[in-house]
């Protein structure tokens, strides 16, 4: 019995390290699996939080941090800054230089699209319009071809920049799919919101000069055709001139670059 007891002790002592090693190996594999599952989630959360936290202060230090996380994809983040005008009496053409400066060096005007412009040429962003009153300034600039661009035989590409003016304080949810990262974040507007498009080999529009007539001048010409000065109009300015529209009244007028009436499709009962 003495020898049997000694043998059992030896057998137990020999088996214990083996069991411990097997248990430790199993725990290690389990931990590795957990890390493999958790790390990508943590990275996504950190990236999302960084975008969410800093997009509101994107003009200060947020864009630098976003670029560290997203690289070139950070250009897809809509950025915001204040304008000097009065949101309750926003002068579309007076604010054009500020919008163009915010679009960046080399940006040239391509289009102005304004919703609910009053007869004095201004917009009230705080008014209860549906959809809300806003102006979108569209600019284009030339840029070098992207590094991964296919051979197209052109030395320069075109990039579209939109600067949208709307009521400060409004918050919008942005979802951007494509590229190497899908973006999902919120922006609290400070006045101007800037969106930068991807470079393209073909220009997305025409380069045009600043308007030679104010929107108040266009409105005055519209009044001469019978349009009520109490209404609010949608006015677009592009390479063809001006389009003046009030859909609820059946008003559609077009003017050339020199502000001459070229098309009168008013349905005002005359």
Describe this structure in words.
The protein is α+β, with helices and mostly antiparallel strands. It folds into 2 domains: 1-77, no CATH class; 79-270, no CATH class. Helix content is 31%, strand content 27%. It has helices spanning 2-54, 58-70, 96-103, 215-224; strands at 79-81, 90-91, 108-117, 122-123, 134-143, 157-165, 171-176, 183-188, 192-196, 233-238, 241-246, 251-255, 261-264. It has a 9-stranded antiparallel beta sheet, with helices on one face. A two-stranded antiparallel sheet has the order 2-4. A hairpin with a 6-residue loop joins strand 7 and strand 8 (183-188). Helix 1 (2-54) packs across helix 2 (58-70). The radius of gyration is 31 Å and the shape is globular. The protein starts with a helix and ends in a 6-residue tail after the last strand. The model is unreliable at 7-11 and 46-74 (pLDDT under 50).
